[in-house]
């Protein structure tokens, strides 16, 4: 599992005192407040202490220690920042999206492998998982308890109970063709 995970990307400056507008790629402002510091690379590097952060629509206004004027902030435009997973605490049963990508998706009852998770999106009320089957086809399923029975990224798998017609029909017809 990756040690440093994406927090967001600086899209522009805000004001003259070094504040930056951050496109959030994580759980939001309150999450980053608790984390307390950001890194300029997926390998870590020099930590920037978060001096202040507040929401502005879907973005955040971010002030980092040592970034004290517009020129310093402008130099960071386009910069992706990361947080150290050791600085964050997730509730039991919650996982980072980066930990779910690449997990094998298995039938909870039969053990049949449907493919691997290639993305997790959050367009509305629940997450939507995209699974790429061995034949290259992609399938989407909702991340709800009725379907998603277990997430186990440390062991590299998710257990699902297929929604009738979502996965079964395509996989059954593939077996008949073999």
Automatic annotation (TrEMBL):
GO terms for biological process: ribosomal small subunit biogenesis; rRNA processing. Residues 98-163 form the Ribosome maturation factor RimM PRC barrel domain. InterPro entries: PRC_barrel-like_sf (IPR011033), PRC_RimM (IPR056792), RimM (IPR011961), RimM_N (IPR002676), RimM_N_sf (IPR036976), Transl_B-barrel_sf (IPR009000). Its main location: cytoplasm. GO terms for molecular function: ribosome binding. GO terms for cellular component: cytoplasm; ribosome. It holds the Pfam family RimM. Gene3D superfamilies: PRC-barrel domain (2.30.30.240), RimM (2.40.30.60). An accessory protein needed during the final step in the assembly of 30S ribosomal subunit, possibly for assembly of the head region. Essential for efficient processing of 16S rRNA. May be needed both before and after RbfA during the maturation of 16S rRNA. It has affinity for free ribosomal 30S subunits but not for 70S ribosomes. Binds ribosomal protein uS19. The PRC barrel domain binds ribosomal protein uS19. This is Ribosome maturation factor RimM.
């Amino acid at each position: 599992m990756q040690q440093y995970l994406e927090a967001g990307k600086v899209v522009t400056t805000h004001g003259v005192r070094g504040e930056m507008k951050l496109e959030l790629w994580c759980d939001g402002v309150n999450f980053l407040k608790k984390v307390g510091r950001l890194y300029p690379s997926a390998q870590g590097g020099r930590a920037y202490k978060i001096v202040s952060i507040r929401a502005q629509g879907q973005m955040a206004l971010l002030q980092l220690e040592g970034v004290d004027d517009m020129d310093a902030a402008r130099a960071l435009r386009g910069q992706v920042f990361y947080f150290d997973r050791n600085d964050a605490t997730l509730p039991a049963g919650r996982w980072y999206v980066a930990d779910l990508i690449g997990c094998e998706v298995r039938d909870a009852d039969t053990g049949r492998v449907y493919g691997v998770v290639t993305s997790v999106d959050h367009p509305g009320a629940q997450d939507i998982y995209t699974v790429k089957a061995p034949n290259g086809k992609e399938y989407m399923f909702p991340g709800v308890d009725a379907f998603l029975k277990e997430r186990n990224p440390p062991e590299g798998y998710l257990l699902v109970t297929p929604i009738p017609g979502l996965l079964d029909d395509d996989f059954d017809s593939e077996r008949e063709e073999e």
